[in-house]
Amino acid sequence: MAINDNITVIAGKTTTSAPDVETKSTIKHATTGKVYASEKEAEADINDPATSTTKEDIKRDVAISVNKLPDILGGST
Hints:
The protein is mainly beta. The chain contains one helix and five strands.
């Protein structure tokens, strides 16, 4: 007999799979509003003696979009 379902059972309860999510990160200078393409670019700005940018000036935002929530209440849709 083959098992075809990809499920996890913990203490007798079936757990739901991870929801389908999308994330988008933005690295930005809090004062000037400059958006950095990568962590390396932000780090280079911090290390550049020609700028007054410090680690505290760098702001990181993460947007999380959940495409479909799992059925966690056991009801029908």
